[in-house]
TrEMBL record:
<dbReference type="InterPro" id="IPR052160">
    <property type="entry name" value="Gypsy_RT_Integrase-like"/>
</dbReference>
<dbReference type="InterPro" id="IPR012337">
    <property type="entry name" value="RNaseH-like_sf"/>
</dbReference>
<dbReference type="GO" id="GO:0015074">
    <property type="term" value="P:DNA integration"/>
</dbReference>
<dbReference type="GO" id="GO:0003676">
    <property type="term" value="F:nucleic acid binding"/>
</dbReference>
<protein>
    <recommendedName>
        <fullName>Integrase catalytic domain-containing protein</fullName>
    </recommendedName>
</protein>
<dbReference type="InterPro" id="IPR036397">
    <property type="entry name" value="RNaseH_sf"/>
</dbReference>
<dbReference type="InterPro" id="IPR001584">
    <property type="entry name" value="Integrase_cat-core"/>
</dbReference>
<feature type="domain" description="Integrase catalytic">
    <location>
        <begin position="30"/>
        <end position="155"/>
    </location>
</feature>
Amino acid sequence: MIRDIRNHIQSCVPCCQNNHQRRKAPGSLKPIKPPEGFWQLLSMDFHGPIIPTSQRGDKYIISATDILSKYVVATAVRDYTPETAASFLNEELILKYGTPQAILIDNGTHFDQPWTPRSHRSPTIVEPTGMNSCPLLRSTAIRVFIQQQESSHLN
């Protein structure tokens, strides 16, 4: 009887047009293996534009998060160019904390440059903000950035 009902529903044109598949399509996504130590695997991304911009003209936040410890390094920047990303990577991460083994980056044009290795690992989460291992980073960083700008305008 179940087979008859299934055949009837599959042959019914209005049923086929209006009954959409509600299950997720199977994919080849695999979870990222957690690193064995600190500062081995980072995720790096831009956030913004943030309104209002700062007095210096900063309207984006670039951040890097250690996947294991959830330690975040973030700074406000004026634009999201490859040069800005490379400068942040070199000056704020490598020179201060050392070189990580791998960095998770998205496929944005600011990361698709000669200084990024072609063997970079793309995120496995189907979400634009899935890069960030700390989901509250974006909202918290933007809120703090805006509060800082508003308090500095009062002085």
